[in-house]
Amino acid sequence: MAHPTQLGFQDAASPVMEELLHFHDHALMIVFLISTLVLYIIIAMVSTKLTNKYILDSQEIEIVWTILPAVILVLIALPSLRILYLMDEINDPHLTIKAMGHQWYWSYEYTDYEDLGFDSYMIPTQDLAAGHFRLLETDHRMVVPMESPVRVLVSAEDVLHSWAVPSLGVKMDAVPGRLNQTAFIASRPGVFYGQCSEICGANHSFMPIVVEAVPLEHFESWSSLMLEDA
């Protein structure tokens, strides 16, 4: 859950998000080193009146500042590509959920069950219970079992939407007439919040996403209760 004045990412709740955080720190350190070096060179050139005649025309230094950036780009590209392929990897999901975007709410269908689906609307501010978050709570949460691969099929009924939950490292566009898929594994129990991340009309800011990860036995109890109520 994000909080005011937060500078970094939310705490990771999935293995992919942990990899993304590590890659962010890796790339940021490279940026810091380059920025420090450039700042030092600028200050040195501005503050000194001396001139080194060996760097006015030097093939050696030109070779260095051509090869070094290429090496740095490779050091950034290789882990980036690795994570990109990891994010697309979907191996034997234990549960499949279809998330459908509407103006302006989400509907969820648990396709492994015969009749388990519901609409998820934002709870108005005046109806919030104590401890709930304004503009983020929904009347029905998407409940998933923790430590289990979950596949999410994402589409939309009317306009473009985007199903995004930062803590889980998930963001997938919902396109009318097209079925996109993504996957995640919730590594710990908890409630994780997201929002539609594609401008979709007047109430774009009011269609939150709430994913609740629970132990498997609690998920089975919840699904049985939902099927009884259906």
Question: What's this model, at a glance?
Answer:
The chain has 230 residues and is α+β, with helices and mostly antiparallel strands. The chain has 3 helices and 10 strands.
List the topology elements.
Layout: H1 15-47, H2 59-88, E1 95-102, E2 105-110, E3 117-120, E4 142-145, E5 149-156, E6 161-165, E7 170-174, E8 180-185, E9 190-195, E10 208-214, H3 216-229
Parallel strand pairs: 1-5, 4-10
Antiparallel strand pairs: 1-2, 2-3, 5-8, 6-7, 9-10
Pfam family, one: COX2_TM
GO cellular component, one term: mitochondrial inner membrane
Subcellular location: Mitochondrion inner membrane
Order of helices and strands: HHEEEEEEEEEEH
Number of helices: 3
CATH architecture field of the largest domain: Sandwich
**Rg, nearest Å:** 24 Å
* Structural class by sheet pairing and helices: alpha+beta
Q: What overall geometry do the principal axes of the alpha carbons give?
A: elongated
CATH superfamily of the largest domain: Cupredoxins -  blue copper proteins
Tell me the number of structural domains.
2
Spatial gap, N to C terminus: 31 Å
> Roughly what fraction of the amino acids lie in strands?
25-35%
CATH class of the largest domain: Mainly Beta
Name the helicity range: 25-40%
Q: What order do the strands of the largest sheet run in, or round the barrel if closed?
A: 3-2-1-5-8
Indicate the CATH topology of the largest domain.
Immunoglobulin-like
Give the rounded overall mean pLDDT. 91
Low-confidence stretches: none
- Could you state the oligomeric state of the chains shown? single chain
Largest sheet, strands/sense/barrel = 5 strands, mixed
- How many strand units? 10
GO molecular function: copper ion binding; cytochrome-c oxidase activity; oxidoreductase activity
Subcellular location: Mitochondrion inner membrane
Family: Belongs to the cytochrome c oxidase subunit 2 family.
Membrane topology: Multi-pass membrane protein
